[in-house]
Every structure is written in structure tokens, then in C-alpha cells.
Amino acid sequence: MKEPHPAITTLYFSRKYQTMKWWSTGVLLLVMMHAQAQLFDNKESFTHADTIRGSITPERSWWNVTHYDLTIRFNEENKTLEGKNTISFRVEDTGSSMQIDLMQPLEVDRVLLDGEPVSISRHDDVFYLQTPSLANGSIHKLEISYHGKPRVARLPPWDGGVIWSRDHNGNSWISVACQGLGASVWYPNKDHQSDEPDSAAMHIITNKGQTAVSNGRFRGMTENADGSLTWNWAVVNPINNYNLIPYIGKYEDHHSTYQGEAGTLDVDMWFLEGHMDQAISHVLPDINKTLEAFEYWFGPYPFYEDGFKMVEAPHLGMEHQSAIAYGNKFKKGYLGGDLSGTGEGDDWDYIVVHESGHEWFGNNITTKDIADMWVHEGFTDYSETLFIEYWKGKDAADKYVRGLRKNISNDEPVIGPYLVNTEGSGDMYYKGANLLHTIRQVIDNDSLFRDILRGLNHDFYHQTVTSLMVEDYISRKAGMDLGRIFTQYLRTTHIPVFDYHFEDGKSGPVLVYRWANIVKGMNMPYDIQVDDQLVRLYPSQEYQYYDLPAGFDTRKNISGNLDYYVLTQRSGK
Is 322 in contact with 245 (CB distance < 8 Å)? Predict the structure, then answer.
């Protein structure tokens, strides 16, 4: 999620650099160094540790995670934790060294492979296991016991780690936010998005009087000999590492159901004591409206077996699969504001809608490399527009998505460098949404566009993907080559310019036009208004000509389709 964080001035976070950009009364205080940006013109340098973290190393490639079974206890008194993760995995190839990720200062106490100890060596945030020869296709269990004082989240969810907080009554309130940073900040795992466990279980040990909530279905609570409680949760669907999250606090549960495309969906809200009435009146109606709109646009909710759950969290919100974190303070919009500035985002709860959208894009469809994170954030940001369209109509939706453009920086490409665990520009949200809105205009068939969105969630159901896989899919289903359009918006910072002027022809004025500021071969059509008619043109980098009707007033500027994210420029010719 990691959307802009509100402050006295509007604050935006670049997740790539973990730095901040400040705007105050419309004045840009951070100088943008993006003039003449080139394709993949990122100048950031990376270390060997970045490569180990972000790539499929030989020590990661030969085995595939099938299940995580995590037992965890958080000790608030000294801000430590202790736990055990049993990793079930399948052997896919020959390998003798296994990479497991666990961020310092957490320490490993013991590692057992199928019940037998194995030798380990540590290198920064990674440790390597020396394993015996294992047969291809065989299934094994790796039991890792660990403890330590984990990194504390300084400004969750943007700057992640463990969250040690207090609720409105002073009760302990603990959770984790770790997208981008990585789940290895709090438990040992194969910390790469390309390898999701097929299922997972979480056993959270708490003090008496506390409740623990996690992903999926509640499997019961047991009381331990020392008086502590163990809360058991499990998901039966694939789940990415950063989505597997504990919530510990004074929680109450409200259960309801939603009659959806795939049957009866269990809907639960876990909110703090004293907040449930607000949750029922404010959150639940928007949950039901969101599920209805998104099942229409994207297809059935992808995790019926695990249910839908929204959990009050000590931060703004995150898309934790089947246990969405909510912290929007029971306000409409984004903490009471409208990110589009149009008024169309004022009458629905932003966190409910946006984070629920991630259940389809981010959780059902997950990118293999976080460089392609626009697939999560661009589609989910556009889901807000589709929510508005479903409930308020197309004009309101178009107005909203166009309003988001004011938040686009165009400071660096949306897609980041691969294999180093680095995202691209924060423009993946608003620029990603406007790219999809532009693609929708190019396709010019809303029924087909909806079929593509539903098809993505059906054909890539519970899969990890690359941006190119998604781009090629949309092109194929649309029946047109959209590749250079995707490249233009995702891999450069240049916005296409419809450059035009008028000339005198034999029978009247002639429109002379082209695309400027584009990648070579970019072939996007463009719709313009000519008197009372909408005309589709096919600009290229070379000037082309269109005969205008006699009497056309060339003193007026050409009006293009505002739903394309392009600029228009009338040249002086």
C-alpha cells in the first residue's frame, strides 16, 4: 500500500529510496532532477547484498516453498521476540547450499532438517545451510528456531518493522508492516516474492486478556501451562511473505456474510474494544459495496476458502491477504481528504476500497520482482476509479482518475531495476492508474476492457507474474500491440505530446500532427474533437495530415480526449 502520508504539508514517500518529498501550498520544495530522463536511466548503485536479497541465487533456485508453519511470541517488556518457523519445501533441482533470509539483529538458535541438525553460516542478513543430497521431487521440513530484538517500525507502513503500540485505552497493540523491506525483518523465510508458500499457519502466543488475529481462518485457541494463550490461524491459499502478519490487541469480532459470485463469503471485522459500533456503521457498508463492485470488474474474490477479514491496525493500512489492515480512523476519503482533489473521493473510505483491491492485484496476482510493483499498485489505484464508476457513473470516475494526475512526479521510471529488491517510482500509483485509463481509451471497448481485467484474475489465478506477462496478455486479448505504449509510460519519464499545427489546403484547412516526446515506434491512436464529431487519428513520429471541414475555425485549439494521459502542443508553424 504505502500511499502518501498526510501531514501539515502533503508528504509523499519514494519507497525506492525511503526518502521524502515535501509540497507546501503547492510549491515544490524538492528539486526534481529528471530533465531529459532516458530509458532505464536510474543511476543508483547497488551492492552484492542487494543482489543476494533481490535475485534467485543458486542457493534459492533448487527448492520451492510449499508451507510455512510459524510460532511466534512478542515480548513487549524488552521489545524482543522468539519463534520457530517450520518450512516445508520441495526439491526442484540439485543443490547443497540453501539460502534463508533473517535480518539482523535477529539470531538463529537451531536449524533441523527432517529432524537432524545442519551446519549454518551467517553473512549479514542471510544464512546458508549445508544440506545433504536430496532427491528431486522430494518434500522436506526445515525447522528454524530463532530470537532477538527485531527492527522497530519508525513510521509504519512506510518505514517497516515490528510495531509496538498502545490503543486508545492504553492496552498493548502489536503488529508488523514489512512490504518492500521484507518479511525476514521478523521471521526466517525465503524472502522473495517469486516463491509463495502454497499455504501457511500462524500460532501467536499472547498474555491472558490479549487476542491475536492473523490471516485466513481461526483454528482455535489453547491455554498454555504458563498461563499464556496460543491463537491458531491458517490460510489454505498461496500467500506472499509480506502479507503473513500478526495483530495482537484487545479485539472484538463481528461476523457477517456476503453473497458473491462464488457463493457465500465469510466477512469478519476485528476491531478494538469500543470501536465495533463505528466499524459496523462506517466500515462494513463500504466493504460490501467494494466486494460488489470488484467482483463485477475483476471476477470472484480470490480467497473464498480463507474468508475476507478487516483488522484494525496501529498504522494506516496494508493489503495483508484475508486480514486487511485498517487504520483510516473511520473517516471518508484518505484520512478525511480526497487524493484526486475533485470531490469524487470524499464519500467512501479510501483504505477499505484500495486495500481490498489488492486482494485481486497484489495478492491473487503477485509480481515476481518488486521492480514490477506497478502491477500491484497501478491496477489497485485504478480500482478506485472503477469503484466510483460502478456506484456513481463514468463521468465521476473519469473526473477522479484525471484528478490524480496532479500527484505524478515523472521523476524516474515506474519500473525499477531488476534483481536488487528495488521498486521503481512512487508514480506506480497515479501514473499506473492513468496508463490503464489511457489503455482503456485505446481499446475503446469497455466490455472488452472488463473482460481483460477479469481474464487477468482468472488466467493468472494465484500466480506470480512479470510486468511483461501482464503487458503481453492485455495486448493479446485486446487484439492490438500495446507494447510500446506500456514502454512509454512504464520505462521512461516522458509523457507523449500531441504536437499539431494548421496549414492551408486546396479545399480548406489541414491539421498537421504527430507524436512528440515518445519512444521509437510508439503507435498510440488519439481521439480529437472536430466540430461535433469525435475523430480517431493515428499519429506517428512523422507529421501526418487530416483534412478539416471547410469553415473549421483554426483560431481554436484542438480538443483531445481528456481521458488520455497525454499533453497537447500547438506548434508555431
Answer: no
